[in-house]
Amino acid sequence: MASLHDFVNLDLSVTTEKIIAEYIWVGGSGMDMRSKARTLPGPVTDPSELPKWNYDGSSTNQAPGDDSEVILYPRAIFKDPFRKGNNILVICDSYTPAGEPIPTNKRAKAAEIFSNPDVEAEEPWFGIEQEYTLLTMNKWPLGWPENGYPGPQGPYYCGNGADKAFGRDIVDAHYKACLYAGINISGINGEVMPGQWEFQVGPSVGISAGDEVWAARYILERITEIAGVVVSFDPKPVPGDWNGAGAHTNYSTKSMRGDGGIDVINAAIEKLEARHIEHIAAYGEGNERRLTGNHETASINQFTWGVANRGASVRIGRDTEKEGKGYFEDRRPASNMDPYVVTSMIAETTILPAA
């Protein structure tokens, strides 16, 4: 007897050249991901070959009801790990019918910054450490006693065992699905708070870092949907003596990676310090609950930096110090940050002349 699973896994290529394209965009909250699918006549490998589409912006808090049409512009293609075959995931950004980016479209400004000749010449690389927390449907961390708390932090970071690692099957499924999709996911690990995990994307160049993080977030949302688990990107999902969730952003430019790059790194950090307040304002909602000066964070009110210091705003690695070139890590972004905003702002601050 046929099952639902049989139909979900039908191989369309047996009977048709048509494919399914899942168009994905960021909704009105800036963190909710929306998507819908359409049929295309055949395989597509370049976003420029894809048609624009539209959606009802009044239902996503992105347009008024009397003028609700919002236009989707395809920007990046990934293989679809759910439908497989030639089917694709399409990362889009959103515009008015007149071609103006809507306020929640953060990709448009980022693309403008990354297309600046001075920025392009520096080939900015990003490695983003996306932390997240797995929750039950009752919105309590996975693996925690119902209405209670687990043992104190210590054994959970990179831990193994049924009493330390909660949700590993979901994490591994996401890891493999991202690799299948073509996302440059570089690793995973259990985090300090039980039920909290991290995946890393990068090194990715320029705007592609944002595209890949959003695609990886979408795939994670879909996998947790299948598993009946909720994923949270809240920077402090549980108050108290528990680590928050961040999106540490590792960054380098061509000049930083070359001989004498440590001087360029130091100069860049000084520029970041000068714009600390502006960066913090753009680094995620609720970040003040995380950046307290405790739990491997610096105070939100003070910019600090150091070598191998995970309690600083910006950390330089030992290898970078030793070699006199390399990269640094901005530890301030929250887990719910917009990667388009954070990556482009870092590039703008460190490469382009101050306004």
TrEMBL record:
Domain of life of the native organism: Eukaryota
Alphabetically ordered keywords of this record: ATP-binding, Ligase, Nucleotide-binding
A GO cellular-component term linked to this record: cytoplasm
Residue stretches in coiled coil: none
Residue ranges of domain GS catalytic in the record: 103-355
Reactions catalysed: L-glutamate + NH4(+) + ATP = L-glutamine + ADP + phosphate + H(+)
Domain GS beta-grasp: 19-99
GO MF term list: ATP binding; glutamine synthetase activity
One example of a Gene Ontology biological process annotation: glutamine biosynthetic process
InterPro entries: Gln_synt_N, Gln_synt_N_sf, Gln_synth/guanido_kin_cat_dom, Gln_synth_cat_dom, Gln_synth_gly_rich_site, Gln_synth_N_conserv_site, Glutamine_Synthetase
EC number: 6.3.1.2
SUPFAM superfamilies xrefs: Glutamine synthetase, N-terminal domain, Glutamine synthetase/guanido kinase
Subunit (UniProt): Homooctamer.
Family: Belongs to the glutamine synthetase family.
UniProt-recorded name of the protein: Glutamine synthetase
Taxonomy of the source species: Eukaryota, Viridiplantae, Streptophyta, Embryophyta, Tracheophyta
